[in-house]
Amino acid sequence: MRKTFLFFFILSTTILFSQKNDSLLSYSFEEAYKLQEKEKKPIVVFFHTNWCKFCFAMKKNTFTNKEIIKLLNEKFYFISFNAESKKPININGQTFINKSGIHQITEILASKKGTISYPSTIILSPKNTIDEQIDSFLSVKEIKKILQTYLFNLKQYNH
Fold first, then answer.
1. What is the DSSP string of 81-138?
2. Where are the domains of the chain?
3. Per-residue confidence of the chain (159 residues) as pLDDT tens digits?
4. What span, in angstroms and rounded, lies between the C-alpha atoms of 151 and 43?
């Protein structure tokens, strides 16, 4: 009886641990910026809305892929952000809010030529400058290539 209990306990712990490793770690803006104080990594921000079917498809397909999860968890800080969020964001003493239905942080980071498209995927450098702005649906293959190329170029630039 004890052995059976111990076996199931170990099995359930292993299953829970493996599930955590298979999950995409997603941070708030505040958390990502705090983590950068300890370890500088690029930040990937995924801007989405509740009504965007392509956003939903990326959440369901692209960001559930094990290779993408591993790449994002190991090499980046990932932020999934609802562009219409009402929650204020405080970074370095500055507060960003939703003024007109679209959050200020979305307007700052995802705007291209005065327009915001959804989904938008932004890569911020470890120095928090905008390095990439992609305003379309990204398949697993597309985002993998973008992230790997970005990391390769970052490594080349820093050496």
1. EETT----EEETTEEE-BSSSSBHHHHHHH-BTTB--SSEEEEE-TTS-EEEEE-S--
2. 24-158
3. 554 444 444 444 444 444 456 899 999 999 999 999 999 999 999 999 999 999 999 999 999 999 999 999 999 999 999 999 999 999 989 999 998 899 999 999 999 988 999 999 999 999 999 999 999 999 999 999 999 999 999 887 765
4. 12
Element (H, E) at 48: strand 43-48
CATH for 24-158 is 3.40.30.10
Q: Which helix (H) or strand (E) holds 47?
A: strand 43-48
Q: Report which of 156, 106, 155, 157 is spatially closest to residue 135, judged by C-alpha positions.
A: 106
Structure-token pair, residue 25:
């770690």
- The whole model's pTM is what? 0.84
Q: Contact, 97 vs 104, CB < 8 A?
A: yes
CA separation for the pair 29, 53 (Å, rounded): 24
Distance between CA atoms of residues 113 and 6, nearest Å: 60
Q: Taking Cα atoms as reference points, which of 85, 1, 88 lies closest to residue 47?
A: 85
Q: Classify 50 as helix, strand or coil.
A: coil
Instruction: Locate 152 and state its tokens.
Output: 């390769």
